Amino acid sequence: MMRKILPPLAVVFAALLWSMDGFLRQELYSVSSFLVVTLEHALGTLLFLPILIKAWPEIKTLGQRGWISILWISICGGILGTFFYTKALSYMHYIDLSVVVLLQKLQPIFAISLAAIILKEKLSQRFIGLAFVAMIGAYLVTFGTTSISDWDDKTLIAALLATLAAFSWGSSTVLGKHALNRLPFATVTALRLLVTAVGALIIFTVTSDGFGSVELTTHQWRILVIIVMSTGAVALFIYYYGLKHLPASHATVYELTWPLSAVFLDWVIRGRMLGFAQMVGAFLLLGSMILLTREKTND
């Protein structure tokens, strides 16, 4: 009985941790997004280094397809997804946290669509209809009843960045499940953290002056450590445990805990409440996501 309960609880708990992630990352809005990604994953790698060393003989036997999956989830899920999400949160004065987080729920559309392309699965008319409803919901969540003439460039950029993050993470779900079929969840976690840290370090070094000009305050280092020990590496470890023992479509349903709890926290902590049109959009978006995952399960 516990074996059936623990995986869903693990995904829900990871999602609850992720719902607090935005509040932590907004404390780092003045720090380069790539630097945040580099330091966060480097610290996470140090945390999981014993697991990485122990599993190295098994890692060396990983085939080409397995390495492609690891590289994909590390680059798209670890670097690009986190970069786009962190960058979107840097526009916190122009877009509510609730909007950024709710846009992540486009992720299942990308995941299921890419699975159809990669695995040659046929998309039903029901899927296409629900995907269209989700797009309308995403629009309403982002803009409400605001007319095109009132659109703000900053809001548009933040919404685009959040959507790109959803694509990066959605595609990583498909390849992540592939990697978990070949390696234990703890090994996948450690390996992803390492590859992401190395990749982010290379990008940061090429696109900046290096670490010579980096000056983080004690508070910012403290926030980075808290992220690693809660919403970052640790949450990833817990999530991969759940995903290892669940169909990806089921895990996506449990992940809906993330936006709902994030919106609740945004209301409690900052007093920000979605408008009526945005609430309708959130209902359409989340409702279509649940139905989409059922569609995937039933196929």
Provide a concise account of the structure shown.
The protein has 299 residues and is mostly helical. The chain has helices at 2-25, 33-47, 49-54, 56-59, 64-89, 97-103, 107-119, 125-143, 153-180, 185-207, 218-229, 233-244, 248-254, 257-270, 276-298.
Description:
The chain has helices spanning about 1-25, 35-45, 50-55, 55-60, 65-90, 95-105, 105-120, 125-145, 155-180, 185-205, 220-230, 235-245, 250-255, 255-270, 275-299. It is globular, with a radius of gyration of 19 Å. It has about 300 residues and is an all-alpha fold. The two termini are about 25 Å apart. The protein has one domain. Helices cover about 80% and strands about 0% of the residues.
Any key phrases for this structure?
single chain; 299 residues; mainly alpha; 15 helices; 78% helix; globular
Secondary-structure-based class equals mainly alpha
Q: Enumerate how many helices there are, as a single number.
A: 15
> Average pLDDT value?
81
Compute the number of structural domains. Answer: 1
- Compressed to H and E, one letter per element, the order equals HHHHHHHHHHHHHHH
**What is the first-to-last residue Cα distance?**
26 Å
Overall number of strands:
0
Outline? globular
Q: Determine Rg (CA atoms, Å).
A: 19 Å
> Which segments are poorly predicted (pLDDT under 50) over 5 or more consecutive residues?
none
Biggest sheet record:
none
Strand proportion: under 5%
Helix share bin: over 70%
